[in-house]
Amino acid sequence: MCYLYTPTMTFITLPLLNGTNQRNFLTVVYSSVYSKPANMSFVDTLRQWDEAVTCVNRQDFSKALEIFLGIQEPNSKIYFDIGCLHLLDQDFDAAEKAFDCSIRKDEHLAIAFFQRGITFYKKKRYEESLADFQKTFKTLRGNQLIDYKALGLRYILYACDVLHNMALVEAELGNWEKAQEHLTKALNYKTEARFNIIDKALQSILKQKLFKLVEFQSKEMFKPNKHYVAELEKKDYLGKAKVVASVVPQDEFSGFAPLQPQVQDGPTRPKEPEVLRVLEGEPHTVLFEFIPETSDELAVVPGNIVFVLQKVHCVVFMGLVPYNYLERLEISLASNKNKGITPPPSRQPPTRPERIQGWLFCSFISSHHFQEKQSTDNSCIVKVHFNFNFVVSVPCGSPYTMLIEKISRKLNLPSSAITLSLTSEASEQSVISANTEMEELWSRASGGRVTLWCNTKEEEIHLVALHSYESSNPEDLNFQQGDKIKLLSKINQDWLEGQCNGNTGIFPASFVEEVPANGQ
Asked: What is the pTM of this model?
């Protein structure tokens, strides 16, 4: 593997052939082709470069040269292409300047030295031509060839061709012995394709006759990367929106809205919402926010639309709402105009009315059957302060067991883990238990309402190890058969988390069993 260095450190791997025809690779480090010019964008440079190469392919060399010269701050490859076009036009001075610029941009571009050596030869500046051919051969680093296809140029630079031209320049200078040495050396680098050229040159040297120069095909150009060129074309990834189905005749809307199936000979107006057809009752809009205090009441916010039901059915979200919190709303089912949501009013909400007078049973739009609940006159609303507040309804004078059962079902906790108190601070006097006289609690009820405070205590669950468990995982808990383990949490059906002998970790649930409460 051979490496050539340039300041920009861009690597390209090129195929090579050594003297034994064994295939190697030459990694050429070259200056960045697509460096952004100071006054010209990368895209513009790329577009003009591609356009100029297209003109060369059409044999329109003058137009191609005009486009190339219009590129500001060309890179080494573009300068090389400009030099080749000048060489085709027999403008050797302009070609020399272009190849000079190409070499300044990339001092290790061997093909540029080779082309400048040809230019000097045609200008009969043989010493300078020989120097460039020698630099070209030195850049090859003892390899048979460099294939420039990976860099965008369809050309293979052969070491034997470089030595062939060096021998020709030496012959022009009258150094026939050196010329013969170069050709003899070329025999070690020649490939089957170049066999005849070297042999014919050797025969000419023996007769001290000049032979033909090996020239670069100047119509071949460095081309920009085809992947970058493909990105020059604008692509519409989303495409143009088009209505494919709509219930509205002559609909041209193309936004992000759900489409409805198109019905042949459909209606002349949008269909009425099916959900509105099953409602019985008068629609109202909510003027003020209402926060429920009982399970029978309905939470609403300004702007909600509720339906005052005359016959309650087909509802899920339902409850009592003060009638003076509502405003009658006119809804035309056949209308196809979207009136939007009525903005909330700016006036203050009225004071809370009595529960018995002026309450209506209302519902949101829903789809489940509901049977109206009737409240009894002797029921009492118990408001419970917990991590969150909630209410339960029990008959006045209910025993402790009925009250604690309702609260435990609400919290989904065993009644033994719940402590009820008449005050926020649970003390001996305020705690309610099965031994408490419930008359004191119900005497505190005012207007059918009473307030309690609730605390919970978690019961510790202890396990005993049925088998020893040892694991190398740091998150696992190791224990021996018969060890007592305190359960901390249940990870899933198969794994538990616990604490044993001061260590905490996870372990298989099948290795332990729960210790009965009376077994501790």
From this structure: 0.42
